[in-house]
Structures are given as C-alpha cells and as structure tokens.
Amino acid sequence: MNCIFCDFQKKKDLILWEDDLSYLILDIRPLSHGHLLLIPKEHSQFLHLLSDQSLSVILTNIKKIVVELDYKKYNILQNNGHIQSVNHVHFHIIPFNSSGDSLSINWDVQDVDEEYIKCASERVKNALTKK
After folding, report:
1. Is 117 within the bounds of a domain?
2. Which domain of life is it from (predicted)?
3. Nearest to residue 40, comparing CAs of 29, 27, 26, 24?
4. How many CB atoms lie within 10 A of CB 87?
C-alpha cells in the first residue's frame, strides 16, 4: 500500500503531536493560519470503515486540540470520496482568525418541496430504525 499519511507516521519531525491512535500535522495548503490535520494511524479510506475506537479517540482529540490552542471559532472538515485528496481518513481543523482568513464552501444547494422532505425523512427514519 502506498499512502502518504501512512508514510507520514514515520516522519517524526513533521508530527506536532501524537498519541497511540492519531497524529497531528500542519496542512501544507492551509485555508487559514493554524490549519491542522488530525490523522488516524489506522489506514482507512472512508470514515464509515474506521474502527469505532479510532473514531472515538479522534473526536476526543479534536476537542482537546481546539481547547488547548484556544480556537474560539473553527470548522472541522472531513471528506469521503468526493473532493477527498488523500485516500486516508483525515480531519481538517480550520481556525477562523480575524486577520481576514475565511473558509468558503461553494456547494450548490437544491430547492426541494414538501413531498421530497416527507419521502427523504421516511427513508432515513426507516433505515435507522431497522432491526
């Protein structure tokens, strides 16, 4: 397997912080000053394939990082498939700085009617309440 994030685990000089299940690096193409990547050590291309243990630790670590770095306003971004640049789950921690940094996501939104909302709601409810 050839994965840049799996390889980064061995480059201790690039790692800002780590624990047994994840590590933190600076994003080399930041959207703002202090833009970080928190990366699970477990290789998984998609979030839904990541172990529950790694996912739980990642979310706890995101909280720790934003608290310790005193990020008051921030975005957490995680892509699966579409626009995913590296096929290894990773979480962008993007602080908002009053120095003019901004995060702009230009997704096209869709206009929907009540029938769509009703059908989509039922589909999700049914899928999540299956036994």
Report:
1. no
2. Eukaryota
3. 24
4. 15
